[in-house]
Write the structure tokens for this entry.
Amino acid sequence: MDFGEAEGMVLDAMTEKWPELARRFEDLSDHDVRFPEGESRSEFHTRVRETLDHIVATHSGERILVVAHGGVIASLVAQIVGGDPNDWRRYRIDTCSVTHIELATDGPVTHLMNDIVHLERIDLPNAGEGTPS
């Protein structure tokens, strides 16, 4: 999302500088809220969806991988499953997680959502002893 003048600011600083906007951002039904010189929520979600639609149309019938920030992925997931893309807490996406959604002709199929099992540490017996053979 283009945060405009708020880009790079921490949440506390944004809230202090624009308290009314901070209150508006708490209202999930406010699709028009934006920071100065930034894009609105609805503009962000539209841009995200149009980009996905373009990728799908360009690569019809192919398997593709899209790597994006959590907010983009959460917006897409919500839009695909018919949820509210402003409700980012409902569609939490952890850093480096895997979300696998198949866009089938008879509707989307969610295979994985926010999967982080690949990030878990695995302690193997005798790990680090000697050299591999």
